[in-house]
Amino acid sequence: MTDILHVAPVDTEAELDRLAARYRAASGPALRVLNMAGSQADALIDRLPAGVRDNLVDATEAALRLSMRAADSSRAAVPDQKRWVNTAVASALGAAGGFGGAPTALMELPVTTTLLLRSIQGAARAEGFDPAAESVTFDCIRVLSAAGPLEDDDGADLGFYTLRMTLTGGAVQKMISAVAPRLALVMGQKLATQTVPILGAVAGATTNYVYARYYQDIALVHFGLRRLAIEADLPREVLVDALRDRMRLT
């Protein structure tokens, strides 16, 4: 157990309890079912058409770049939505994308990615951060490609902590290129579940529903920890350790 009780105010403990509860909710039964399916990732991705499969990383990177621009530019015209609205729209997009099989699923991918990024940006704003700030942009992309702040081997980190002090637009673009292979695996699994027309609509709606809920919860945990680190004047790593302790005790 960390020494946080001796250095942080009592409300820090209560906030960590709240974040732990949200983290547990994010990693609920529905996500575990998707992870079980994801354990067969190679078999799922093999179901994709060869042209899609061979260009999956490039397509994911292009979708992520397009979605990042779209998410940023849409903020002036479309306000952040409530959680249930984001989840409902994501589900509808997944159903539409899966209805026609792989072609419509590919068309839906950047739209869903934009929606997920917007919901992550909304979580950042809810925790008091400006989504237009470059460091927040960095974190939003990290959240989208992450398995959560407690994953020791989380590929989303990718050594980019060293860029935080000198983050530029070019660094963000490099990060997008670096996280694309990891995100391509997730999106490849999603596309594979949508390859059968009609049946793919159900799979797409279900997958998007789970993803939308998961990313919104994980974003709130991520930015909640970042906010708490500022308010409690504690290193984020200390808070992550304290959160990990709580998860081990459940």
Description:
Helix 2 (10-26) runs antiparallel to helix 11 (199-232) and helix 2 (10-26) packs across helix 12. The longest helix is centred in the last third of the chain and has 34 residues, at 199-232. The chain has a domain at 45-218. The protein has helices at residues 4-7, 10-26, 29-38, 41-46, 50-54, 56-74, 83-99, 102-126, 134-144, 169-193, 199-232, 236-248. The chain is an all-alpha fold. 74% of the residues lie in helices and 0% in strands. It is built from twelve helices and no strands. It is globular, with a radius of gyration of 18 Å.
Identify the overall geometry: globular
* pLDDT averaged residue by residue: 75
What is the number of strand segments?
0
What percent of residues are in strands?
under 5%
Q: Outline the biggest β-sheet.
A: none
| Secondary-structure element series | HHHHHHHHHHHH
Low-confidence stretches: 1-8, 152-169
Spatial gap, N to C terminus: 14 Å
How large is the radius of gyration?
18 Å
Question: What layout of secondary structure does this protein have?
Answer:
Blueprint: H1 4-7, H2 10-26, H3 29-38, H4 41-46, H5 50-54, H6 56-74, H7 83-99, H8 102-126, H9 134-144, H10 169-193, H11 199-232, H12 236-248
Sum up the structure in keywords.
mainly alpha; 12 helices; 74% helix; disordered N terminus
Short description:
The protein is mostly helical. The longest helix has 34 residues.
